[in-house]
Amino acid sequence: xxxxxxxxxxxxxxxxxxxxxxxxxxxxxxxxxxxxxxxxxxxxxxxxxxxxxxxxxxxxxxxxxxxxxxxxxxxxxxxxxxxxxxxxxxxxxxxxxxxxxxxxxxxxxxxxxxxxxxxxxxxxxxxxxxxxxxxxxxxxxxxxxxxxxxxxxxxxxxxxxxxxxxxxxxxxxxxxxxxxxxxxxxxxxxxxxxxxxxxxxxxxxxxxxxxxxxxxxxxxxxxxxxxxxxxxxxxxxxxxxxxxxxxxxxxxxxxxxxxxxxxxxxxxxxxxxxxxxxxxxxxxxxxxxxxxxxxxxxxxxxxxxxxxxxxxxxxxxxxxxxxxxxxxxxxxxxxxxxxxxxxxxxxxxxxxxxxxxxxxxxxxxxxxxxxxxxxxxxxxxxxxxxxxxxxxxxxxxxxxxxxxxxxxxxxxxxxxxxxxxxxxxxxxxxxxxxxxxxxxxxxxxxxxxxxxxxxxxxxxxxxxxxxxxxxxxxxxxxxxxxxxxxxxxxxxxxxxxxxxxxxxxxxxxxxxxxxxxxxxxxxxxxxxxxxxxxxxxxxxxxxxxxxxxxxxxxxxxxxxxxxxxxxxxxxxxxxxxxxxxxxxxxxxxxxxxxxxxxxxxxxxxxxxxxxxxxxxxxxxxxxxxxxxxxxxxxxxxxx
Length: 639
Description:
Layout: H1 5-18, H2 21-28, H3 31-37, E1 44-46, E2 53-55, H4 56-68, E3 74-77, E4 83-90, E5 94-100, E6 103-107, H5 117-131, H6 135-147, H7 152-163, H8 166-177, H9 184-187, H10 192-199, H11 208-213, H12 216-226, H13 228-237, H14 242-245, H15 255-268, H16 271-283, H17 292-304, H18 313-331, H19 339-359, H20 368-385, H21 399-416, H22 425-431, H23 438-441, H24 469-472, E7 480-481, H25 486-490, H26 499-511, E8 516-517, H27 525-538, H28 542-558, H29 565-576, H30 582-597, H31 603-619, H32 624-638
Parallel strand pairs: 7-8
Antiparallel strand pairs: 1-2, 3-4, 4-5, 5-6
């Protein structure tokens, strides 16, 4: 028997009151849910710059009546009960006015409510041109707008789509940043349609190289064909890899227009966009030599910054990336996409946030609290991501590593196009060999570490043969000096380690029965284990991961591993990434974490461990069934 609609409606309302507000909002925003239970929403329309708000149920019928008879005026009531009047003027385009007392204010025309099809299509075309809507959004709305005026709910859906474009979100962020309390949902939207407009359509690209070779060019062309300045500014937001910035062609643009853009970029751009802009600028330098001072300024600003400065721009960039990526992980907005795609979105959104902060004069402040808000989600999601993209660790998101990465990108593009760079300050800076020039500044192993979007791409340089000698030397069961692994660990983020090298390390550990000798007072055990775990992951060699689990256990019993449960969890998750299959990964993670939980843990340590575990299971829900015993063990320790 089907319950009467009123009964189901009342039941749904009461049940919604039980759940947290965020869940209730999500449910009410679902059109199918509302129709099933006979529920409706009555939004409040607030007009920017006016101290007036009107209920949608009162405003929209009045506007429809005006479109039918524009010669009249329609009385309406604001939310606080103030009397107001709506009126309309029909010229080339309809203009709508709200009168409050003696004051008369122009407000948006709400063209989508008009009966006249030409008015609707004309208004829609203006919005398309101004906002550069994605093609799929345009097509999904054009047919409806041609057929009839939009309903109240369709109107709200269209308004949401019009607001979910990068330039409108940037405006909302600047407004939100000036409030006493900001809403995270405004700073980092969780709507997948928004990110399609921001970074494009991934298609089936499994990594950033394939995206650059696939749909990325269509996104670049869509933006540059719309408006050079605004389009290029948006292109640079998602150029977190040189292959993406290489798709941008600015040839044929007026020199003064190009110069003006790079002036803006050097003074007001975010760090990620600035370096992508340097790549674009150096590729086009022979045609636009007048941009030289701006390219030099960008590179020198990055070079001269102290990475340890908590109020610096590099710290700001790192904090905002952690905040944006952590929030996207928390909302699971990209749960079904490869990790690089979420990080590409996080890079672009962090860059929008940085531009807003710079424009408001807040770049010289400490923004670490923003990172702390979502640090746990960022960290645990990134460790979980290693199963799919094993080369990028959360530890690499630091101001110092960012500085190296950005300078290295400038160096690489400069070497590639050095014949196009004429003698002058730029050539000296990017091709010189003095201590304050790029070659010297980036001649360290970590300069070749992957960027956030390159975790799924194999390192291009093989581990050198001459560094393999110690790994191949027979040990005859003797105690092994731990420093034998120094070259391996120091270059774990730089070189490509194949299964052969991982096998050599695994056999070496087994042959000496996990007996390693460490230098006196040397606290390198954790670094050594993390480096070897990274090699096991990138080489996809589970046997080395299994040997590391035994080694970790042995070192812990001997007292050589001075690491808490959190550090041991990190070693475990990095090593377990050697198993790409999700089920195998879940089983191995569950077993290793249970071993850690059954160790000697303090109450506070157990509580932190449990918190991390729950965040990890939020990132990978399939892990819950394999870590139930871990959670129960930690719960008992916390009580």
